[in-house]
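Handout, page 2. Input:
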Amino acid sequence: MLTGFIPGNAELYRCALTHKSLVSLSAENLNFNNERLEYLGDAILSAVIADYLFSRYPECNEGFLTKMRARLVSRENLNRIALKMGFDKMIILPGKSVPTKKHIYGNALEAFIGAIFVDRGFNGAKRFIIDKILHTFLNLDELECEDMDYKSRIIQWGQKNKKEISFESYEMTDDANLQPAFASTIQIMNTIAGKGRGATKKEAQQHAARQALNNLPC
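Output:
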């Protein structure tokens, strides 16, 4: 059992795993999809992670705690965890369609957390997040040593080397997928140095910055 307990309301968890594209095909029960639970789960996840980090790092400042929380709840991280937990096999989509955007799985994980909160309360959601996510799929010691803020790193490099850095981002339209997507390019001295795509503008810029960093001379 993924939750570690018997759900009190099975329909609640089915709703958490139902993508809005399925409901859009029918006029019946338009609110039976995971968007509202995703909104709730996102807030609960952030609160639990913030509390956990606050207790684990009593000597660290707000900046460190904020950066660590951002790494833990990043879309890329949540997608990876959701896939390892098997959400790609559980999410309910129209027919046999396969989502092209992996963030759908991370969204479903957040909705699932929202369902646990409604079903079992804050303590139940907290136990799930800590036991099933933090302790199972994350290594905080490794994350401490990572610097995933590629955009800040490339900007700092530009300042140090007196190179002008600029980003251009735009939203892409995809009629085949209901989720928004963004593309971004990074220019160094008016020359494109990296490109990226993501579910948000920030994520797209991070991917572009990462590509640019990989292309920099050693």
